[in-house]
Design goal:
mainly alpha
Length: 447
């Protein structure tokens, strides 16, 4: 047995952070994000692998927040109201679930994620905290993009990329979806840093994440990548530069992949001949029929043999939902699906609102960039999620929290300084001012 360096490292980092968390609960949110997305303990092999680090950090964070003098207020918006109602509905469907023991076990995971989402919204209320949170999330997941991208290049794409076992992103489909949502976050970090070396490293990270998504060999992730990349170009500053970058990078990755990968992707058009695809469709019909029969759906973990025997067109073809929409439909009925979609739609509208109101505000440029990139994340999640089952993925709900926080900050600044942009527009810029701005823009090497 070797010396468990990884186990010791994670343990030391977590327990050293606890005194700092007691003084500043925002550090607890950053630690929670690191443990939840990078899952460093799952990269070890001995005592740290299943140790409840996240639970210890979460409890310490909540205790520190309760004891602090910070304002303890949930930012009530349409998103938070809908999230509360959605959680209450999920609790009700768990009470009436078809498989109570399995459902309560899953509910125990889901409510903890939702609780920390609301705690995060109450703590991460400043620009510095929000941006620190995004950097931790982006780099934690970007680690697997970096690792997966190099693995794909070294193996010629012959083997699929997987995430850490025993986590939300352990499968190839799941890590593909997570990395699709990570690319816009890395882009946001790139837009908001003034260090050229950091921008270059983030560019490399984005490229490797794109390679890793393709390397997962997930057809759902491949479709989501196409949607996310298109909208990333549409929503970004320096659209033409980014478009050229994508037109060079994506075809190069596509050409690099082996023939076996191309054969697998070609089954998207001939899904009728693919057993896995038809199994998913069978599961979708089961979810639809179950939701029609039961207003509360089947509760968590209802995609089981007994429900397929009653509601599926092919009773013996038991398959997981592999779709966030049909997963929610089957488990929580049509009402649950409506609430789930309403949360996403409201978040989308809030992003549009933020972008419209802050587009010409230099002091809120970072909020504009944040809203535009979070909207790209929503597109990636909505597109990939149609074929991947991660309806309760904590990253999605953390992004909702970030959208809420961005909107609250934008509203506050716009109310306090409503005439700033109008006053700026009324002042005619001098020749020296124009020259100075041109020089600054030349020095900025945005990708």
């Amino acid at each position: 047995m070797g010396f468990p360096l990884r186990d010791i490292f994670v343990t030391v980092v977590v327990f050293i952070s606890l005194p700092f968390i007691l003084q500043r609960p925002d550090i607890g949110i950053l630690m929670w994000a690191w443990l939840g997305y990078m899952n460093p303990h799952k990269l070890s092999w001995e005592f740290a692998h299943d140790f409840p680090y996240a639970q210890i950090v979460a409890l310490t964070t909540m205790f520190a927040f309760l004891m602090s003098r910070e304002e303890k207020k949930i930012p009530w918006t349409w998103e938070t109201i809908l999230l509360v109602v959605f959680n209450l509905w999920m609790f009700v469907t768990t009470v009436f679930s078809l498989f109570p023991e399995l459902a309560w076990e899953e509910w125990n995971k889901v409510w903890k994620i939702q609780l920390m989402t609301f705690v995060s919204m109450m703590i991460m209320t400043t620009r510095w905290r929000i941006q620190s949170w995004i950097w931790v999330i982006a780099l934690s997941l970007g680690f697997y993009g970096f690792k997966g991208g190099i693995f794909t290049l070294m193996t010629g794409g012959a083997y699929a990329v997987y995430g850490p076992t025993g986590t939300f992103i352990g499968g190839n489909n799941e890590i593909g979806l997570a990395l699709i949502m990570t690319v816009p976050l890395l882009r946001y970090c790139q837009l908001t840093t003034d260090k050229p070396w950091a921008r270059r490293l983030l560019l490399v990270g984005m490229v490797l994440c794109l390679i890793a998504v393709v390397g997962t060999q997930s057809r759902g992730a491949f479709l989501g990548l196409a949607a996310m990349s298109s909208f990333l170009v549409y929503n970004s500053r320096r659209k033409w530069t980014l478009l050229v970058f994508m037109l060079i990078t994506l075809p190069a990755i596509y050409t690099f992949m082996p023939e076996s990968w191309h054969e697998r992707m070609s089954t998207i058009q001939t899904y009728e001949e693919d057993g896995s695809a038809m199994g998913r469709i069978n599961a979708w019909w089961m979810a639809f029929n179950l939701a029609k029969d039961k207003i509360f759906g089947g509760g968590f973990e209802c995609f089981r043999g007994p429900t397929f025997l009653i509601y599926a067109p092919e009773p013996t073809n038991v398959h997981d939902a592999h779709s966030i929409y049909f997963e929610v439909l089957g488990e929580h009925g049509f009402i649950g699906l409506a609430l789930f979609l309403a949360v996403g739609y409201s978040a989308w509208r809030s992003c549009r609102w933020i972008m419209r109101r802050t587009k010409r505000r230099e002091d809120l440029k970072w909020v504009y960039d944040l809203a535009s990139m979070l909207q790209v994340c929503l597109v990636g999640y909505a597109a990939s999620g149609a074929f991947l089952g991660l309806a309760y993925f904590d990253l999605y709900y953390n992004l909702i929290a970030l959208i809420v926080l961005a909107k609250v900050i934008a509203k506050k600044v716009l109310e306090e300084q409503p005439e700033q942009e109008k006053n700026k527009a009324s002042i005619k810029p001098t020749f020296s001012y124009v020259v100075q701005k041109r020089e600054i823009r030349k020095k900025e090497k945005w990708v």
